[in-house]
Amino acid sequence: MGVKRDKALVISFWASWCDPCRLEAPVLNELYSKYKHDVDVYGINVTRYDRLEDVQKFSRSLKLQFPVLLDEQGALFERFGGGGFSNSCHG
User: Fold this and answer.
1) Distance separating the N- and C-terminal Cα atoms of the chain
2) Which candidate, 73, 66, 69, 72, places its Cα nearest to that of 35?
3) Whole-prediction pTM value?
4) pLDDT tens string for the chain (91 positions)?
5) Quick one: which of 9, 11, 6 has its CA closest to 80?
6) Lesser CB count within 10 Å: N end or C end of the chain?
7) Residues in CB range of 68: below 8 A, 6 or more apart
8) Which of 67, 66, 81, 72 is CA-nearest to residue 15?
9) In what order do the strands lie in the sheet with 8-14?
C-alpha cells in the first residue's frame, strides 16, 4: 500500500551537462521557494551519466535550494521509465 502524502511532489531527474536541465533549475528553485509548505521538490541527479564534481558545481552555481539526491546507478531513473540521457537530455 502506498504512503499517503499531504503535499504535492515534484521530481526532476537531471544531469549537469544538460542545457534544458540548467534552464529548468531556476524554475524549480522558485517553485520550491514559494510553495515549499505545499509542495516537495526533489532534484535527482542521474549520477550514472554525470560526475560528482560537476553535480556539485551545477548545484552551487545555480544555488539550488531544494534537496538534491544522487541516483548513482540510475536505478530510480530507470524505475520511472528513463532510458538514458542523450545529447538532447531526453530520458
Assistant:
1) 28
2) 66
3) 0.83
4) 567 778 999 999 999 999 999 999 999 999 999 999 999 999 999 998 899 999 999 999 999 999 999 999 988 998 888 866 655 564 4
5) 11
6) N
7) 42, 43, 44, 45, 55, 59
8) 72
9) 8-14, 39-45, 68-70
Q: Cα(68)–Cα(72) distance, rounded to whole angstroms?
A: 12
The amino acid at 64: L
SS (H, E, C) the chain: CCCCCCCEEEEEEECCCCHHHHHHHHHHHHHHHHHCCCEEEEEEECHHHCCHHHHHHHHHHCCCCCCEEECCCCHHHHHCCCCCCCCCCCC
Cell of 31: 517553485
